[in-house]
C-alpha cells in the first residue's frame, strides 16, 4: 500500500492466505457507519511470522488482529500478554501501548457468548477438532464452563483422539463437536473433517469456527442428520467488537 493511501489510524489482520476473511469488510463498514474517516482496516498477509517486525516498521498502525497460522507464533514478538491470552497460549488481538505490544485473546469471549444461547443443559463432553491456536481458546472456554473437552487430531496426542479412533460410542458420549480446523473454508468448500458422520443425530450440537461459506460441509453433514448447527460468524463479530474495545481503552 502506498503511503498516500494510509489513514491516520490503521488497523488490520495478520495471517497467511487471508483474502477470504470477512474482518476487513466488517471493520470497513463499522468505520463508515461511525463516520471514522481517519481509520482503515487492512489485510497483512505474511509469508512467515518473521516478517512481523517489518510490518511494525510501517506507519500509523494502532491495533492488529491475528489469525491462522500465527496465533501462537506471534507471541515471542510481543512484550506482554493479557492473563486470558497467557492462560490460553494464543493471541488474536494486539494492542499498541506506551509499554509495548500487549497480546489478548478475544476468540474466547466470542466463542463463549455465541455458544451459550444454544445450550440448555450443558453437555458433559465435547470434541475439539484441530489443535491450533483457535482450539486452545475453545478448550479454555469449555473447561471454564465445566465441560470435559478432548482434542481430535490426525496425529496421536496425549489425552485426545485420532480421527480413526472415533466410534459410535465416542460420538454418543460427546454431544458437542467444535471444528477448529480450516477444512471447508472457501474456496475448498467440499473439504471436511474425517468424522464418522453416520453416528450423528439430534442430540448433537455442531459448531464450526468457519463462517465462509455459511454452512460448511461439516455443518451440512450434521444438519442432514438432525443436529443443531452454528457457524462462526457471530463469534467473529463478537471477538471483533471486543478487539475494538481493547484498542480504544
Discrete helix count: 8
End-to-end C-alpha gap: 28 Å
* Radius of gyration, in angstroms, nearest whole number: 19 Å
N to C succession of SSEs: EHEHEEHEEHEHEEHEEHEH
Summed up, the domain count is: 2
In which range does the helix fraction lie? 25-40%
Concise structural overview:
The chain has 249 residues and is an alpha/beta fold. Helix content is 29%, strand content 23%.
Could you describe the 3D structure shown?
It is built from eight helices and twelve strands. The chain is an alpha/beta fold. It has two domains: 3-105, 3-Layer(aba) Sandwich (Rossmann fold); 109-234, Rossmann fold (3-Layer(aba) Sandwich). The strands form two sheets. It has a six-stranded mixed beta sheet. Strands 9-8-7-10-11-12 form a six-stranded parallel beta sheet. It has helices spanning 23-34, 52-56, 83-88, 107-115, 133-145, 168-172, 217-223, 233-247; strands at residues 9-15, 39-45, 61-66, 80-81, 93-97, 100-104, 125-129, 148-153, 160-162, 176-179, 205-208, 228-230.
Q: Key features?
A:
Rossmann fold; about 250 residues; alpha/beta; 8 helices
Amino acid at each position: 500500500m502506498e503511503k498516500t493511501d494510509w489513514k491516520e489510524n490503521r488497523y488490520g489482520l495478520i495471517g497467511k492466505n487471508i483474502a477470504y476473511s470477512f474482518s476487513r469488510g466488517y471493520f470497513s463498514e463499522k468505520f463508515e457507519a461511525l463516520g471514522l474517516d481517519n481509520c482503515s482496516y487492512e489485510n497483512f498477509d505474511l509469508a512467515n511470522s518473521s516478517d512481523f517486525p517489518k510490518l511494525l516498521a510501517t506507519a500509523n498502525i494502532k491495533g492488529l488482529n491475528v489469525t491462522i497460522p500465527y496465533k501462537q507464533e506471534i507471541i515471542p514478538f510481543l512484550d506482554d500478554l493479557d492473563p486470558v491470552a497467557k492462560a490460553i497460549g494464543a493471541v488474536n488481538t494486539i494492542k499498541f501501548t506506551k509499554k509495548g505490544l500487549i497480546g489478548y485473546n478475544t476468540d474466547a469471549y466470542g466463542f463463549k457468548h455465541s455458544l451459550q444461547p444454544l445450550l440448555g443443559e450443558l453437555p458433559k463432553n465435547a470434541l475439539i477438532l484441530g489443535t491450533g491456536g483457535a482450539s486452545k481458546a475453545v478448550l479454555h472456554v469449555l473447561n471454564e464452563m465445566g465441560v470435559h473437552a478432548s482434542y481430535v487430531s490426525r496425529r496421536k496426542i496425549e489425552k485426545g483422539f485420532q480421527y480413526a479412533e472415533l466410534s459410535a460410542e465416542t460420538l454418543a458420549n460427546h454431544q458437542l463437536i467444535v471444528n477448529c480446523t480450516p477444512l471447508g473454508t472457501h474456496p475448498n468448500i467440499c473439504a471436511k473433517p474425517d468424522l464418522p458422520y453416520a453416528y450423528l443425530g439430534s442430540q448433537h450440537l455442531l459448531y464450526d469456527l468457519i463462517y465462509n461459506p455459511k454452512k460448511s460441509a461439516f455443518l451440512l453433514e450434521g444438519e442432514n442428520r438432525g443436529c443443531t448447527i452454528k457457524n462462526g460468524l457471530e463469534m467473529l463479530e463478537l471477538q471483533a467488537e471486543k478487539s475494538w474495545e481493547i484498542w480504544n481503552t
